[in-house]
Amino acid sequence: MNQRMFSSRPRKARFIPLALKSLALALLFCFNAVAPVPAQEAPKQLTSKERSEVFQQVWESVRDYHVDPKLGGVDWKAIREKYRPQVEKVQQDRELWALLEDMVSELNDPHTWVLSPRIVTRREARQSYIYDVELTLVEGRIVIKSVLPDSEAARGGVTPGMAVRFVNNRPIGELWKELKEEASLLPPVRAPLSRLVRLLHRRGPDGKLKLTIRHSETANVVVPVNLRVVSSEPEVKGRWLPSGIAYVRLSGFGSRNSKTQISEVFEKALEPYRKAPGLILDLRDNYGGLLSETLTIAGFFLGGDVLVGFSERRYAKTQLLETPKWGKIFKGRVTVLTNEETASAAEILASALQEKGKAPVIGTQTCGCLFGISTYRNLKGGGKLAISESAFFNTQQKLLEGIGVVPDKVVLLTIADLKSGRDAAMEEAERILLAPPAK
């Protein structure tokens, strides 16, 4: 969740320790500052002294500015002693950035991360990298969640619901156990999916992945998993369902590098459905974004001057989070779809609509990744550092970090649904909207 810096007098923040959450049991093959990127022209290399200075800057900034002064129980001094000797030995800047990423990942905080110069360039170009095959854990098995139509996997007959047997010739069960054990060493026990992705693709040479997939009861198919360059701009897609219910999907809330304000795009997309009897707002796989845009969109459903929660920083007074003053756009009934990948600002929106009684939440519990980034700190050599500097509390003053939004109706993904293309969560959301309102 990105947000503008708050200007206010210093105070000792009332902070609740990080809540624990069960280990995330899904594996998303999408790039978010952890996957390998295409080669670019290398910038001038830092000296050994400069690398040590960058390392110290990152370590001190996290110590001094993270919203949780206890850092979730992580012994940050021990972390410095663990990584400093490794930094002193590096010969290339790419090794430094990888070590810094590893160091801050020990916090197990998705909003505290190091951006290498290549990733900074990618973000400024509004580009992202995704794998052409997406995996998830369903019913205790790692299976295909989706496949891009023009990929080698699709041409090889790979379809959603098929089980993965090997990754780079290693049995998936053995590898998954190893990943969970490695991730569980980090406090708190909640392991962001990005951490598991990092652990997985490092098992392959140069980060490359090759999957062996059960194609049928008697045959397997071996396919490479490739990276693709895509736009990082969020999307809004809407359509009418045959029942007369409207459906709108929002993939993100934008960033300071976005070409357009996502609230304006969302408002235009919402316009055709103003008078719909009900609307399904799909926030599944929504990675979050700008807090200001989130509050604006919340106002489209709740109206103006509505309190949706509080933001607290380590050295600042509590900030009230309210919707802008203009009135609501959609006055009909709403349901919200969420999953484990609903994160950050998307969780704030889902929480607000749920708390205000505007919309029941359908699907699975969200990420619990609600710490906020106020600014990106420049690092020598062209990199940047993001730190969780704010924490979100709902209107009941409950900290949702590490917990997330609990659905009103849990609808789990099944292998049978993946194979048939059925969206059970959306069916339930539509059923609720079509039923007479509860008295």
Notes on the protein architecture:
Helix content is 29%, strand content 22%. The protein has helices at residues 48-65, 76-89, 93-105, 117-124, 152-155, 172-184, 193-201, 262-270, 291-302, 345-355, 415-420, 424-434, and strands at residues 113-115, 127-131, 133-138, 141-147, 164-167, 170-171, 209-214, 220-225, 227-231, 236-240, 246-250, 278-282, 307-313, 319-322, 333-338, 361-363, 372-378, 384-393, 409-410. The chain has a 6-stranded mixed β-sheet, with helices on both faces. Strands 1, 13, 14, 17 and 18 form a 5-stranded antiparallel β-sheet that branches. Strand 17 and strand 18 form a beta hairpin. The longest helix has 18 residues, at 48-65. It is globular and about 65 Å long. The chain starts with 47 loop residues before the first helix and ends in a 5-residue tail after the last helix. Mean pLDDT is 83; it is low at 3-40 and 184-195.
What keyword list fits this structure?
439 residues, alpha+beta, 2-enoyl-CoA Hydratase, Chain A, domain 1, Pdz3 Domain, 2 domains, 6-stranded mixed β-sheet, 12 helices, 19 strands, globular
Quick description:
The chain is α+β, with helices and mostly antiparallel strands. It is about 30% helix and about 20% strand.
Please give the alpha-carbon distance between the first and last residues.
36 Å
CATH C-level class of the largest domain is Alpha Beta
Give the name of the CATH architecture of the largest domain.
Answer: Alpha-Beta Complex
Mean pLDDT: 83
Structural category is: alpha+beta
Largest sheet: 6 strands, mixed
What is the assigned CATH homologous superfamily of the largest domain? 2-enoyl-CoA Hydratase, Chain A, domain 1
